[in-house]
Amino acid sequence: MTTDLSSYAPLYRDVLLNDVLPFWQTHSIDRAHGGFFTCLNRDGSVFDTDKFIWLQARQVWTFAMLYNRLPHFPADQRESWLATAQHGADFLQRFGQAKSNGPMEAPWYFSLTQDGRPLVQPYNIFSDCFATMAFGQLSLATGNDQQAQLAERTFRQILARRDNPKGQWSKAVDGTRPLKNFALPMILCNLALEIEHLLDQSLVEQTIDECIHEVMDVFYDPTLGLIRENVSPDGQVSDSFEGRLLNPGHAIEAMWFIMDLAHRRNDRGLMERAVKITLDTLQYAWDTEFGGILYFMDAKGYPPQQLEWDQKLWWVHVETLISLLKGYRLTGNTDCLTWFERVHDYTWAHFPDPEHGEWFGYLNRRGEVLLPLKGGKWKGCYHIPRALFQCWQLLEEK
Questions:
Q1: 307, 301, 291, 392: which is closest to 351 by C-alpha?
Q2: What pLDDT is stored for residue 101 in this prediction?
Q3: Fewer C-beta within 10 Å: the chain N or C terminus?
Q4: Helices 383-396 & 314-331, crossing angle to 10 degrees?
Q5: What pLDDT does 1 receive?
Q6: pLDDT tens per residue, range 4-47
Q7: What pLDDT is attached to residue 103?
């Protein structure tokens, strides 16, 4: 393999700094009420003013992270990033949390009106996860104790809720078909490292141990060779829509979290397992007819419950690029490099918008733009800038 990875680096760097970040700083900042608009048309105009806690917090994290990890960049550029992060954090601190019913930190709502009135109850634990990320990263930039304490308390509440994350807002009938979902242990693999500076080392290591076990031993099905999205509480297979569900993007994103943990612990065996699962998942989920990675699949090949199963999504493809580059850099597995080139070519040919900037999020199976939006209820300023930054750094490694 003779690919010069450094030749890709300027593309990822320049699009991050000169296209994606300016798009969000220009179009998303709500200067009247605080926080960010995320429902943006192709040209950046706002088509809805509701504010989703996931996306508010993710954008805070993105700009705080860049401020922290690019210390040698020009001061005026970095200060604008920090100001953007603080702008979103101020809105979240004023309006983002419900009232606390006890000694634990108050949970975070799912969505708010433009001026901060709650719309959807705090049923979704991932609002708390992304708030933890946001305030943990911002506290590194500001040294603000209140922000640090908010991140640490919210993280502890997540741990306390993880066996029943939706609580009173769960739609499932208790006891009929109990299932646990892959997404929370997956994100905790990353979240524990995000706020490690705020936690006791013993709690960090305990959380990492538990998450590695859940991801690699409970949700990974060795017979199938893939990660299931839902399993029974004791780790058994449920032959149901939910139990057969495969989410290739989740599995592949989780593998670069696991690679980070394996690298931290110098665990070569764990690292190589994560690379293998990445490659096996990609081989299974790649659309051989039209290219790209399918969104949802059924483990037995039955029709998935999700009608959007064959769409091609932005986050799935950019998270895959990170996993492939990490896998190659950490293990030297050239299959990662071969797949990186294939996924890179598909991604850059289909998702970036050369006319208005930023990236499309939703393609149909043929790779045609399905929705021209640049942001909405789920797509915001997070996966694309994070992936461009991660890939840029990995591509420049010697």
A1: 291
A2: 72
A3: C
A4: 20
A5: 43
A6: 899 999 999 999 999 999 999 999 999 999 999 999 999 999 99
A7: 75
Low-confidence ranges of the chain (pLDDT < 50): 1
CA pair distance 7, 82, nearest whole angstrom: 30
Single-letter residue type at 251:
A
Nearest by Cα to 206 from 140, 162, 145: 162
Size of the chain, expressed as the number of residues it contains:
398
Rounded Cα distance between 111 and 134, Å, is 16
Enumerate residues 6+ apart whose C-beta is below 8 A from 22.
357
Q: Strand 46-48 vs strand 51-52: parallel, antiparallel, or unpaired?
A: unpaired
Joined together, the tokens standing for residue 229 give 């999205």
- Note the helical H segments in the chain: 9-15, 21-27, 53-69, 75-95, 125-142, 145-161, 183-194, 201-213, 241-244, 248-265, 268-285, 314-331, 334-350, 383-396
Residue 350, token pair as written in the block: 């289909």
CA 312 vs CA 55, 73, 340: distances in Å: 20, 34, 17
The residues, any chain, with a CB within 8 Å of residue 320's CB and separated by 6 or more, are: 249, 252, 253, 278, 282, 293, 343
Distances (CA, A) of 283 to 80, 139, 248, 249, 277: 41, 40, 10, 12, 10
pTM above 0.70, yes or no: yes
Dig out the tokens for 287 from the structure.
């659309």
- Cα-based distances in Å from 210 to 5, 21, 188, 207, 398: 35, 35, 9, 5, 33
The predicted structure's pLDDT at residue 299: 98
